[in-house]
Design goal:
Structural class: mainly alpha
Order of helices and strands: HHHHHHHHHHHH
Shape: globular
Number of domains: 1
Number of strands: 0
Number of helices: 12
Distance between the termini: 5 Å
C-alpha cells in the first residue's frame, strides 16, 4: 500500500513531535508533580482541538450505541497510557522511557494474534524475544542505578501494553464518528481521570509552573495531543499496521538522542544494545512479509 503525501507528512510530524516530547516531558515533570503536569497538558489540548473541530464543522456528538466503545478505547489509549508513562518518567531517563514505551508494537502484535486472528510467523517470535531481551537489559541497568527498585521500567512496560491493546481495539472498532471527535472525548476522559488522581495523591506537592513548565504544557497541548495524537489515531484506523513501521521505529531513537543533546543524558552500552534490540523487535513484528509486499 503506497502512502499518500498527506500520510507521509503525518508520519513525519508524529515521529518528530512524539520523539522530541520525551525530553519535553522530562523537563515538565521537573517543574510540576507528574500527574498534575499531564492533567494540565490534557486540559490545555481541549481548547485547541475544540477550535479546530468548530472551524472544520466537525460534530461533537457521539451516537449512544458508540459511547461504550469510546469509553473503553479512551481508557486504554489515553487514561492508562498517560497515567502510567508519566509516572515512569521521574524514575527513568527520557531515552529509556521512550524505548520502553515504544515496545507497544510488540504487545499490539501479540494481542492481534491472540484475539483478532492476526498471523504470527517465526520473525514475530524473534521480535518478541528481542524485546524481552532489551527490557531485561534496561531492567538490569535500572536496578543497578535505583538500588533494586525497577518501578519505572514496570510502569513504562505496563503503559506500552495498554497502548498496544488499545491500538488493536481501535483498529477493529466500528466507529462512525470523526477521528477528531473520538480524540476530543478521549482526552476529556483522560483529563478528568488524571485530575482526580492528581488531587488525591499530589495535592500537597502542588506548585505553579514557571515559564519553562508552561511551555512544556502548551507544547503537549497543541503539538502532541492535537496534531500528533489526531494524526496517530487517523493512521491507526486508516492504514495497516506495517504502514507506520518507520515512524514507530524512529520515535524512540529521536527520544533517546534528543535526551542526550538537550538534557545531557549519558548513554551506556546497555542502552545502545537495548535500542538495537527494540528496533529489531519492532522491525520483525511490523515489517510486511514478502507475500504482503508482493500482494501490495
Amino acid at each position: 500500500m503506497m502512502l499518500t503525501a498527506r500520510q507521509i507528512i503525518l508520519l513525519t510530524l508524529v515521529t518528530l513531535i512524539w520523539g522530541v516530547n520525551w525530553t519535553v516531558m522530562k523537563i515538565g515533570v521537573g517543574t510540576m508533580p507528574p500527574l498534575m503536569f499531564r492533567a494540565a497538558c490534557l486540559w490545555s489540548a481541549l481548547p485547541f482541538l475544540a477550535a479546530f473541530m468548530h472551524w472544520r464543522g466537525i460534530s461533537f456528538h457521539v451516537p449512544a450505541d458508540e459511547r461504550g466503545s469510546v469509553l473503553r478505547l479512551g481508557i486504554l489509549n489515553i487514561v492508562c497510557w498517560n497515567m502510567l508513562i508519566i509516572l515512569s518518567l521521574p524514575l527513568l531517563s527520557s531515552g529509556r522511557a521512550a524505548i520502553l514505551g515504544y515496545t507497544m508494537p510488540v504487545f499490539s502484535a501479540i494481542v492481534g494474534a491472540m484475539f483478532f486472528q492476526a498471523s504470527m510467523g517465526r520473525r514475530h517470535f524473534l521480535g518478541i524475544a528481542a524485546a524481552v531481551a532489551g527490557a531485561i537489559l534496561l531492567l538490569w541497568h535500572e536496578m543497578a542505578n535505583l538500588a533494586g527498585r525497577p518501578t519505572g521500567v514496570l510502569l513504562a512496560l505496563s503503559a506500552a501494553l495498554c497502548w498496544g491493546v488499545g491500538t488493536q481495539m481501535l483498529r477493529h472498532a466500528r466507529l462512525s464518528i470523526h477521528i477528531a471527535t473520538f480524540t476530543f472525548w478521549a482526552i476529556v476522559l483522560g483529563a478528568v481521570a488524571l485530575t482526580v488522581t492528581a488531587v488525591l495523591f499530589e495535592w500537597q506537592e502542588f506548585r505553579l509552573p514557571g515559564a519553562m513548565g508552561t511551555f512544556t504544557v502548551l507544547f503537549n497541548g497543541l503539538l502532541v495531543l492535537c496534531i500528533a495524537q489526531v494524526g496517530w489515531f487517523s493512521l491507526a484506523r486508516g492504514l495497516p499496521p506495517q504502514a507506520s513501521t518507520l515512524s514507530v521505529m524512529l520515535i524512540p531513537v529521536v527520544g533517546v538522542f534528543s535526551g542526550v543533546v538537550l538534557l545531557g543524558e549519558t548513554m551506556h552500552w546497555q542502552d545502545v544494545l537495548a535500542i538495537l534490540l527494540m528496533l529489531l523487535a519492532m522491525f520483525s513484528v511490523l515489517w510486511p512479509s514478502p507475500q504482503t509486499r508482493a500482494a501490495t
